[in-house]
Design brief:
Length: 133
């Protein structure tokens, strides 16, 4: 009986994740902000620099789903010209990577295509080191 219950629970979880809409992971439809976080200047003991962070509005269920995806999932998205920019932004958001380069691309200071391969290499290395949940 416990086995049957466990199998049902796993199936329900799988079906729930299978229905999660990740259609926003397309370059033409991704909506994001780059925000600047400044350090607390009143704290003299901690020396932190400013940080640019990507913010994407998404429900926790989608965020949790995306955090569970493996490197192969993200490499497919990053190597697809229709989702590479959106996947890159999403990874910046999920892992709070400093988004100075993203800000430069968003402000047209540099072109996405000039940094694309370096970004893919970075995420490939990062995701290989990421612990499996």
């Amino acid at each position: 009986m416990k086995l049957l219950f466990s199998l049902c629970l796993c199936f329900i979880s799988y079906v729930g994740f299978a229905q999660i809409d990740t259609s926003f992971l397309k370059n033409e439809s991704i909506k994001f902000k780059v925000i600047l976080i400044t350090p607390n200047i009143t704290n003299k003991t901690e020396r932190k620099s400013s940080q640019n962070l990507v913010r994407i509005e998404m429900p926790d269920s989608i965020r949790n789903f995306l955090l569970l995806q493996d490197g192969a999932y993200w490499m497919r998205k990053l190597n697809d010209n229709k989702s590479d920019w959106a996947a890159n932004l999403t990874l910046y958001y999920l892992y709070n990577r400093d988004a100075l380069l993203v800000n430069a691309v968003a402000n047209h200071s540099i072109d996405w295509n000039t940094i694309r391969n370096n970004e893919i290499d970075y995420w490939n290395t990062f995701l290989k080191k990421k612990p499996i949940k």
